[in-house]
Recover the amino acids of this structure.
């Protein structure tokens, strides 16, 4: 389940409050499946004391790519955006939750990364117009 909230105390997830991009939309979709009760708040900056929340596409943390130098890139040069960073960590959990064949999880994860996630990341990072 996914719910957009306005009270930060109610939220368990934070993303940026600027214009929606594909990477934060797909990130929210993935995490709404991985997490049982996703409550998202959209903010322009993160107040102190929010370390217990999943934070993506803002805040220069593990799942943000806006810091100077980005947040890593794949061997093929495609830089990670928030979607790719979350996919890298939670993509297999997502596939399991939607009932993917457990014997094909690695293959499915890789194929989706190559054919879909990298496309979204490359657009968000300005590598593909």
């Amino acid at each position: 389940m996914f719910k957009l909230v306005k009270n930060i105390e109610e939220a368990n997830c934070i993303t940026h409050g600027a214009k929606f991009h594909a990477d934060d939309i797909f990130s929210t979709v993935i995490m709404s499946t991985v997490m049982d009760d996703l409550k998202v708040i959209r903010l322009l900056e993160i107040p102190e004391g929010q370390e217990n929340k999943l934070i993506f596409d803002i805040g220069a943390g593990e799942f943000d790519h806006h810091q100077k130098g980005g947040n890593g890139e794949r061997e093929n040069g495609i830089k990670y955006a928030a979607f790719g960073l979350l996919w890298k960590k939670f993509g297999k959990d997502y596939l399991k939750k939607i009932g993917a064949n457990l014997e094909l999880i690695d293959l499915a994860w890789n194929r989706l990364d190559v054919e879909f996630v990298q496309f979204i990341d490359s657009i968000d990072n300005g590598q593909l117009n």
